[in-house]
Amino acid sequence: MQADHPLIETPFSYRNCCWFCQEPATKLFHFPQSNNFVVNCVHPSLSLYCCNECFVPANKSKASSIWLVFKEVKSFLIKTYQKDLAIGINWTQEELANSQFEGGNFEGFKRSAWFMYEVAKKRVNFQGWPLIVSGINIEELKWGDTESFSFDNVEYPSIDDAIIHYAQAFSIPSDYFKEVLSHVGLERFSFAVRFCRLLVGTTPNERKAALNNLIND
Ligand SMILES: [Zn+2]
């Protein structure tokens, strides 16, 4: 457990469940992760339990809030279980039971297909539970996620759009810009822009050294 990432509260009925899909939880997931430089997170850092499978996309995510990670995990589940979910589109349970195909592989298919469909559907549809961190319900912060970001008289749909815009303008990786911002703070966006402007045409090593200097200043 990371001390600055308090564990969310879990209702008794969901104890030991994955917050993303309600399967048995096996892993502890921290947000933001140490390798994900989130500069505009609208909620406090937190930890929650999830299953092995949901941990994979969550761990890869570069999203700026736990609710956006949630969406990416659902997309992953839908993709992974596309075939199972299609059962419910192509058949009703009754049709499947009354189908004229008998014997052989199809018997096994009939038995397991509907079950697999229901499991996948339940996991995709599960909505988690309200996030309470250190005794504070943070659900309403969810809606702060879509806020646009204004800088230098330009309205960007999101902070990420602004970061990508400037990173491209300076030919530096957007992850680097994010890392700079995570150190200097979003309120000093113009400082981060000035800092990164100096790095046009630099090598990754030079940029790393510049950031170290900035941090240790
Ligand atoms: Zn899960």
Give a brief outline of the structure.
With 217 residues, the protein is mainly alpha-helical. 48% of the residues lie in helices and 9% in strands. It has three domains: 12-75 and 130-140, no CATH class; 80-124, no CATH class; 148-216, no CATH class.
Describe the 3D structure.
This protein has about 220 residues and is mainly alpha-helical. The protein has three domains: about 10-75 and about 130-140, no CATH class; about 80-125, no CATH class; about 150-215, no CATH class. It is about 50% helix and about 10% strand. The strands form three sheets. It has a two-stranded antiparallel ribbon with strand order 1-2. The longest helix is centred in the middle third of the chain and has 22 residues, at about 105-125. The radius of gyration is 22 Å and the shape is elongated. The mean pLDDT is about 85.
Q: Report helical residue fraction.
A: 40-55%
Quaternary organization: single chain
Average the pLDDT over all residues and give the rounded result: 86
Question: Total domains, how many?
Answer: 3
| Span between termini | 30 Å
Q: What's the total count of β strands?
A: 6
- Radius of gyration (Å): 22 Å
